[in-house]
Amino acid sequence: MLRIAVPNKGSLSGPAAEMLHEAGYQQRRESKELRIVDPENEVEFFYLRPRDIAIYVSSGRLDIGITGRDLLIDSGADAEEILPLGFARSTFRFAAKPGTADHIEDLKGKTVATSYEGIVDKHLADRGVDASVVHLDGAVETAIELGVAEVIADVVETGTSLRNAGLEVFGEPIMKSEAIVIRRTGADADEPKVQQFLRRLQGVLVARTYVMMDYDCRVEQLEKAVALTPGLESPTVSPLHNEGWVAVRAMVPAKEAQRIMDDLYAIGARAILTTAIHACRL
């Protein structure tokens, strides 16, 4: 069986379980379950702390895992990213009291507090900046007020909590993270069960990104309509009973669907509708 590590809690856990369910895999019914077997799909799921997943996968005990890019890099584990999953996105930034620093070079000789010292150490070393890094678990905003550090490095979403603490971000982002699928570095990339698993997740990603659009249009407007809805290879075009009309079906990006519908209507297309895609293989 394919052995897969899945986050057991935190911001990665719910979306990961939802994506796996959409991909046709059984998921645990109780949060206390640490392992389940999906015999129909020949998969065994292990529910682990997100921070530990890269270690387990790098050891070879588990074949693949779902974790955050930040957690993979911070762990230093011998594992690699093979598929981004598009959820749990975050940005890591430096922050300090106004006037403390404007660029990463200004961190020389300073102390940086963070929960992700592996990421920060590497980022500073890659840029030749000699600064001290101190590890703190949980919220790090108070580290400056209490004199533990002059600078923090943390996840920034809206920046509200930083502003409330009298801090401001500076410099370029340290990194951008999201949920990813990982495997042990150098593992067989063409292993059939792994490839099937990746295809299923890619199918979920496509299904979430696109909708199916159907509409009728006059033959003389078909080229303009097809230019608006080219589909992936090309749209499906079928003649209608009424002469001079055709029915068109194509996949279109979900975020552009309303604009495309407006443009189609403007050139004379009618009976325009969209439907959700629940599964897909490209």
Tell me what you see in this structure.
The protein has nine helices and 15 strands. The protein has 282 residues and is α/β, with parallel strands linked by helices. The chain has three domains: 2-87 and 177-207, D-Maltodextrin-Binding Protein, domain 2 (3-Layer(aba) Sandwich), CATH 3.40.190.10; 90-176, Periplasmic binding protein-like II (D-Maltodextrin-Binding Protein, domain 2, 3-Layer(aba) Sandwich), CATH 3.40.190.10; 210-276, Alpha-Beta Plaits (2-Layer Sandwich), CATH 3.30.70. The chain has a six-stranded mixed sheet with strand order 2-3-1-4-11-5, with helices on both faces. A five-stranded mixed sheet has the order 8-7-9-6-10, with helices on one face. Helix 3 (69-75) crosses helix 4 (117-126). The two termini are 25 Å apart. It catalyses: 1-(5-phospho-beta-D-ribosyl)-ATP + diphosphate = 5-phospho-alpha-D-ribose 1-diphosphate + ATP. Residues 207-278 form the Histidine biosynthesis HisG C-terminal domain.
Helix coverage percent of residues?
25-40%
Low-confidence stretches: none
Task: Tell me the number of strands.
Answer: 15
- SSE run: EHEEHEHEEEHEHEHEEHEHEEHE
- Helix count equals 9
CA gyration radius, whole angstroms: 24 Å
CATH first level of the largest domain: Alpha Beta
As for the CATH topology of the largest domain, it is: D-Maltodextrin-Binding Protein, domain 2
- Under the CATH scheme, the architecture of the largest domain is 3-Layer(aba) Sandwich
GO molecular function: ATP binding; ATP phosphoribosyltransferase activity; magnesium ion binding
Catalytic activity: 1-(5-phospho-beta-D-ribosyl)-ATP + diphosphate = 5-phospho-alpha-D-ribose 1-diphosphate + ATP
Main location: cytoplasm
EC number: 2.4.2.17
